[in-house]
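hiii so um. not sure if this is the right channel but i have a protein structure encoded as tokens and i wanna go backwards to a sequence. like what aa goes where. can anyone help
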């Protein structure tokens, strides 16, 4: 798993835990639904740190809370 996939998975997990749909997350974060769906799309290879911050703000959580999970501890090496 790479960082983009891990970020998307983390948002999916949080939304599932809280019963939030992607459209609701977009509204809470003040971003367009297409931004959220683009971030969740496995075909997209990049994710913006600014978008992650806005989505975390919409979920009322810090970046530290978002990234504080074992999911990010086991990522593949990015430098090859």
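sure thing!! here u go:
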């Amino acid at each position: 798993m790479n960082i983009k996939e891990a970020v998307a998975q983390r948002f999916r997990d949080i939304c599932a835990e809280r019963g939030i749909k992607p459209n609701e997350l977009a509204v809470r974060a003040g971003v367009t639904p297409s931004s959220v769906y683009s971030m969740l799309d496995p075909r997209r290879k990049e994710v913006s740190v600014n978008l992650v911050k806005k989505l975390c703000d919409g979920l009322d959580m810090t970046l530290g809370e978002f990234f504080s999970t074992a999911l990010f501890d086991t990522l593949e090496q990015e430098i090859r």
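oh and The radius of gyration is 12 Å.
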